[in-house]
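User: hey, got a sec? need Solute carrier organic anion transporter family member folded
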Amino acid sequence: MAENEKRIKTHRIRCLSKMKMFLLAITCAFVSKTLSGSYMNSMLTQIERQFNIPTSLVGFINGSFEIGNLLLIIFVSYFGTKLHRPILIGVGCVVMGLGCFLQSLPHFLMERLSSYIWWFLVIYTYLRERNNTSYLELLCIYEYESTVSVSGNLSSNSFLCMENGTQIIRPTEDPSECVKEVKSLMWMYVLVGNIIRGIGETPIMPLGISYIEDFAKSENSPLYIGFVETGAIIGPLFGLSLASFCANVYVDTGSVNTDDLTITPTDTRWVGAWWFGFLICAGVNALTAIPFFFLPKWLPKEGLKSNADIIKNDKEEKQREEVKKKKDGITKDFLPFMKSLLCNPVYMLFILISIIQFNAFVNMFTFMPKYLEQQHGKSASDVIFLIGIYNLPPICIGYVAGGLIMKKFKITVKQAAHIACWLSLTEYLLHFLCFLMICDNSSVAGITTTYNGMQQDLYMENAILADCNRDCNCPTKTWDPVCGNNGVSYMSACLAGCETSVGAGINMVFQNCSCIQTSGNSSAVLGLCDKGHDCSMMLQYFLILSAVGSFIYSLSAIPGYMVLLRCIKPEEKSLGVGLHTFCTRVFAGIPAPIYFGALVDSTCLHWGTLKCGESGACRIYDSANFRYIYLGLPAALRGLSYIPAFLILNILKNRHLPGENASSGTMLTEAKTTKKESECKDMDQNSKVLNDNELKTKL
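Assistant: Yep! Here you go:
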């Protein structure tokens, strides 16, 4: 008798500790995976500038994560429940760390290869054109319009107006002189690394959620999932903080003297130390994997309090293992489960809603830093930091609050569907206020305004030259902007008509600028002109509205997710979550950044130029068209998603869902548990009188 009681007490302690340990481990896994994901999204602009690639290609690189994810999501979701789920999650974390490490490799490879090819160019050009090209000219030709070299960002006398002179820095058009960029294909490492990171992330979501649903009490499940989703918000908080720090550090820090730089973090040619954060993410993912290798394959159902329940659960576990061993294979129920899910109208409509809304949110989150940079003229570091401060805490609070509400008030599936729908609709209507928070285009002579300061039609290349700089023989594709003391920006000091310069580095000042029309001495400084106080206030209003909307939408996230979990049968839960994730990856995660990036590229007003005359990364966008695409397209998509949402509410009126037994029968279960507890107490009191045989009969 004493031995039996000791075993039961040990069983309870082990069940409690293992469940809490898994909850802590899976929360850390969500933190690490979202840390990597948020950092990747925040560094897209830096990667675009580093490799001089268009936004559509950057969108494809970002969507490659979903490609890696969907390669295994269905199989992991179904077969994972038959295998050791914690170990599979641990292996996934290790693979994610490997992918992050691979993404950082281009920085180290480019630095080594660049030195080799640079010396090759020096020797080759010296032998061919020993009498025509100087060492400095060769250096400038090699790094023309570069985003990572100090020499390529120099605003020196080479860009000043020299009447009847010849500019030495021009894109070479001679194929024999045109050498392929060392970093031109290095973005492939980032692409492959992102695919591997997506493969590693595959088991975390479906297997982690199904593990909680299988072994947690039904009324505790929403709260636990709320904690896990909170981890998915804490991760981006750290990820955005890390990205803000790295974006403010020059990419080649340590190998160049940053005091000689002529660009600042607000410049569109600035490239932050994007590679450093990937190394940190790799280490965090590897450390997160360790606890999962020490967790059991199965746990007793949480909340079993009576002796009979615990003994019965042990027998059920043994029977379940025996039945699994007798099965011919683990694919026996796959097709029936798939058929059942595809014939479930609530589940399929929920997938349709998720696909449409994910298309909207993927676009907004992926390109939010770029949008705020271009719209409000802030640096990437400042924008990333503000996004983290304003948006992530409200989302975190909303997730926890949603889980607590579900637990405290014992919300049914039908009630949860109504809560999720109406809260989401409220946030959607608030989104339209963002259209009022606008900033005008930066005033750049020859692109958005004339040299007289008047607004002009956009996309007019022939307006870059004017009478004041026509004799300067300026390169028309060079982007080395200066801000005149008349409040107008110019593409370069040469196009501003500046003849002299004083100072060095970022303190350089250009003087005697013929295109700058002022009453006094005409001068210009490096960089675009500031957009002013009003535009900064619009940014604050936008972020405040974004914070309110994030809280409301996150408050509806847990009730909405419980509709997904409770509209399918318990044995189909893991496959259902995996299929849902698969569909959102295929129809939203992969295509959305690509087509949205192509639309963003269509608003570009001036492209950077490589030394061979090819287009690089975009330097300035049409703010108005960018705003219409960034805010209008997601609004249209989300509006369509409410049609299937209302259909779900209509179906749920007269439909009994498989998961409703768990939630609606909570009170009955608690009553039975209380009764069993009282019976166990009576047995413990009588055990002092009864002998062992009588006690066994009583049990």
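Quick note: The chain is about 60% helix and 5% strand. Let me know if you need anything else on Solute carrier organic anion transporter family member.
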